[in-house]
């Protein structure tokens, strides 16, 4: 006999592939899934925002090469990126929105902020139409 995915009670009637014992359990289950998904997205966005703040301060300060351990002590998350480009000849290139940098196992370098972002966004939007 199948059991309800939400409460674990046995499902005593209905189709053999029925997943929930009642509508309340079904609604609660999908609401919880949506809540978990929102929390996950929020967590990633917070990490990206923190990375962006740190990278932007480095760009403003003119720092182009920094130890990764130093950055991580400020809350930098090396695995939170918005873009990635593998490079055969240099270290891989990463993006945090409009800031790009190269990263090795121990440091990030060549930190620079993209110029003319509004112009590029305009071109991207025209392409997608
Ligand atoms: Zn149930």
Written overview of the protein:
The protein is α+β, with helices and mostly antiparallel strands. Helices cover 44% and strands 17% of the residues. A five-stranded antiparallel β-sheet has the order 1-5-4-3-2. It has one domain (23-128). Zinc ion (ZN) binds at residues 4, 6-7, 9, 20-22, 25. Residues 4, 6-7, 9, 20-22, 25 line the site of zinc ion.
The kinds of small molecule bound in this structure are:
zinc ion
Structural class: alpha+beta
Rough outline: elongated
Q: From the alpha carbons, calculate the radius of gyration and give it in angstroms.
A: 23 Å
Strand content: 15-25%
- Overall pLDDT level: 91
Helix content bin: 40-55%
- Helix count from the secondary structure assignment: 3
Largest β sheet strand count, sense and barrel closure: 5 strands, antiparallel
Strand order of the largest sheet: 1-5-4-3-2
Euclidean distance between termini CA atoms:
51 Å
Uncertain segments: none
Number of domains: 1
Tell me the total number of β-strands: 5
Order of helices and strands: HEHEEEEH
